[in-house]
From TrEMBL:
<dbReference type="GO" id="GO:0016491">
    <property type="term" value="F:oxidoreductase activity"/>
</dbReference>
<protein>
    <recommendedName>
        <fullName>NAD(P)-binding protein</fullName>
    </recommendedName>
</protein>
<dbReference type="InterPro" id="IPR002347">
    <property type="entry name" value="SDR_fam"/>
</dbReference>
<dbReference type="InterPro" id="IPR020904">
    <property type="entry name" value="Sc_DH/Rdtase_CS"/>
</dbReference>
<comment type="similarity">
    <text>Belongs to the short-chain dehydrogenases/reductases (SDR) family.</text>
</comment>
<keyword id="KW-0560">Oxidoreductase</keyword>
<dbReference type="Pfam" id="PF00106">
    <property type="entry name" value="adh_short"/>
</dbReference>
<dbReference type="InterPro" id="IPR036291">
    <property type="entry name" value="NAD(P)-bd_dom_sf"/>
</dbReference>
<keyword id="KW-0521">NADP</keyword>
Amino acid sequence: MSSRIGTILLIGATSGIGEALTHRFHAMGKKVIVTGRDRAKLATLAAKLNGLETRQLDLADLASFPAIVTQILKDFPTLDTVFINGGVQKCYDLFDPATTSADKIIHEITVNLTAPNLLAQLFAPHLLALAKSGSKSNIFITSSSIAYIPLSFYPTYCAAKAGVHTFTKCFRQQLGFVSEEASKNMNIVEVVPPYVDTGLDHDHREFTVARQGGEEKATPPIALDDYIDRFFASLEKLEPDGSFKKEIGVGFGEMSAGLWRGAFETVYEQMGLTV
């Protein structure tokens, strides 16, 4: 894995999984650039990790993306890996309008689906150019295990993450159409986490636990450190040609992605498509 990643940009890296990934990649000696919405959190992270580069980016501010991406690529022309992470999760009742609003639903779709789509599009030409030149390049995009097996508590979150899952498949197909040779050097990886103990569900965890019948029946989250250890263990398991796996899932995430491939991969193979 180490030879495939030299300089990595982590988008959405000031808390939860993104922050934990930042610490691990930095400890591995990679050149790490991180983005986040909160300038103070970025400064705190930079103070802890010597040499860390930070850039402010709000995933809800779509109009700011082109200028920010252009500047990042100008500042770091050897950037070979982009990791699109971050997101928001809301819990609401479709039959009770008082539990959400149009603005909240739009914001959740914007951050979880529209933003990753646009960012991937903006970084794609740079990563493709590297691949065409013979260098390795990678883009990781985080979906979720409940993109595959949705839960009623999170109607918009599940739908948006299912969109991310589908987007990565389309992205990979297009890469094959553009350049078969470059597709050997550029990896498009869907990251499929299970339920991890982060602050993502802080506002509604008690509610969803109660809906599942209490602590004894509710699905428990896995510890963040455990997830990160297992993610990196999977990341090291390269394909025979040295590529990353198309999906990197842990626990329920690995099972979900495996079920999808077992059911649908052969359909695409019959159409001559790589997914």
